[in-house]
Amino acid sequence: MFSYVMRRLVMLIPVLVGMTLITFSIVHLIPGNPAQVMLGETATAEAIADLEESMGLNEPYLVQYGLYISDLLQGDLGTSLRSKAEISQEIWPYIAATFELTVFAMLFAIFIGVNAGIISAWKQNSWFDFLAMLFALVGVSMPVFWLALMEQWVFAQELGWLPAYGRENSRDPMAPITHFYVLDSLIHLDFARTWVTLKHLILPSIALGTIPMAIIARMTRSSMLEVMKSDYVRTVRAKGSGTFLVIYKHALKNAMIPVLTVIGLQTGVLLGGAILTETIFSWPGLGRYVYEAINYRDYPVIQSGILVIAFIFVIINLVVDVLYKLIDPRIKY
Amino acid sequence: MSDQETVLEMNDLHTHFFTDSGEIPAVDGVSLRVNKGEVVGIVGESGCGKSVASLSIMQLVPSPPGRIVDGDIQFKGENLATATEKRMRKIRGNEISMIFQEPMTSLDPLFTIGNQMEEAIRIHQKISKKEARTKAADMLKQVGIPRAEAILDEHPHQLSGGMRQRVMIAMAMSCDPELLIADEPTTALDVTIQAQILDLMRKLNKENDTAILLITHDLGVVAEICDRVVVMYAGQVVEEGTAREILKDPKHPYSQGLIRSLPKLREREQKLYSIPGTVPKPKMGRVGCRFADRCPFAFDRCYEETPSLIQLNNQRTSRCFLYDKEAQEDAESPVGS
Lengths: 333, 337
Prior knowledge:
The complex is a heterodimer.
Chain A: H1 2-29, H2 34-39, H3 45-55, H4 61-73, H5 87-90, H6 92-122, H7 127-141, H8 144-158, H9 181-187, H10 191-228, H11 231-238, H12 243-271, H13 275-280, H14 286-295, H15 299-327
Helix pairs in contact in A: 1-15, 6-7, 6-10, 6-12, 6-14, 7-10, 8-10, 9-10, 10-12, 11-12, 12-15, 14-15
Chain B: E1 6-19, E2 22-35, E3 39-43, H1 50-58, E4 66-75, E5 78-79, H2 85-91, E6 96-99, H3 113-124, H4 129-142, H5 148-152, H6 161-173, E7 179-183, H7 191-208, E8 211-216, H8 219-225, E9 228-233, E10 236-242, H9 243-248, H10 253-260, H11 300-304, E11 310-313, E12 316-318, H12 322-329
Parallel strand pairs in B: 3-8, 3-9, 6-7, 7-8
Antiparallel strand pairs in B: 1-2, 1-4, 4-5, 9-10, 10-12, 11-12
Helix pairs in contact in B: 3-4, 3-6, 4-6, 6-7
């Protein structure tokens, strides 16, 4: 197991090199001159040339890439053109914000999706199955922005139960430690604040988690139906075991293998930053960070943001593969 | 023999499947009896209802679409056809066990052998995990698995088909059931392994006095191990008798066909005999003998009336009009065997 993980980590190196090459190239193929953007419309040609010189933008393409990689290896993601801050310092709160939101959205999606799928499969063709699958179909087809706006309208505006924007009460900000606000408030032993941060998480988590939930529910249902027909489930029943043992021990574990793939992919997608949801809920996450950088032609931030997202995706894939191996002893590497 | 204690008695069992294309009588009035310590074989082609009949005993027929619509299954003074699911859970794996055709897929691939065996034991016996493990190892030794302790920690994919079937048998025997239902237990195995598994079943039958209901299409298996045989065709019993009688002197034309289609070592026939035609699809309200279309002796009555089981002697019945007369006059069988 350990050697497998090590081997997979070594195999990450070419993937990461490829990733940097692609992000670097794409950003540089986009027309538009960052020096021009930084200096504004009225800048003189000399000033632009000077800035290009100092930023290394006039160097050959491959030299620029080489400099980029050597900086990257030293943990230097570059400097934001807009805020003039070190990206490696600046990016963490955004990553943490997206990570926290993703965790809650996926917990919601997995808990509801898996259980709805199980009950639907167990009571196939019942009214519950019908309603759950109808709900899943609606959930998967509903535009996220529409759901998010409806949530804000109903639960924030009309009922006033939950906050509509941000991660915390903006008049009373918290001194961040890890930038995972729920965790931070627990470290501060400030449980009232924990409740506030959790309340801020509810609406965006539901908006973000609905599509994964619908996909997970449908996947779990079809996978469970298949497994429930299998010979080994019949054997378990022939041993005289009760429904709970049949479903939650044997059937679920077997049915989870394809569902795990979906969960992994969806987690990756959400961690990549959900620009729509983050924008509507003013959530200071990775998606919005990159989106704003694109508006500003902030090349280093765009590059770093895409690189971080790609890196997260690769790591999630690795985690899913390791989980496969933990669940299924037949998998050999 | 007939005054032996009866373990299981099935009376006029009807298990039907309710599908979109109508009601299908997969088991259409089957009666059979298994005595204590006896090995009874159910023989028939694929689709004759033998597996459904055996699953009905355990109430494991996939439902929907399958359902027992009529008849009863008496087991120790209790009717299993109408027993509650809760009661059935107490019986399954404890008083009646079952093993299946596919040892490759009958064990859960994600759990160790030990885990699955302990589970089977602990469902019915209030003992600790450790005791269950010791018992599981004992059972594995009893079915002839050499390194039992090590096998407990292995997963099914690490074992061969024969070993897996031994594990299945060990698991089925772990609560010392009175009846073991074996649904084609050797079909998926190599011939040499088949013989070993049959030997093992015979040994367990003799040592523990466990009755066995063996479902098979293989008359070789019947000859090897069965005391009595029930021949099924299209959802019905067509002949019943001791294994010896049926193999030596089959009465029903279908049984005769089955036995003729066995390859014989001494006679080098050019072509192996096969019964012409195929098993008819079961349907409701059928009139006439179900085998008539494929029967070389069929006459008008076979298409007009439905034959009932005719008692030939105290052990022997056959569902054929040919013996309607014979039963009274004790005339010669129309076909020499």
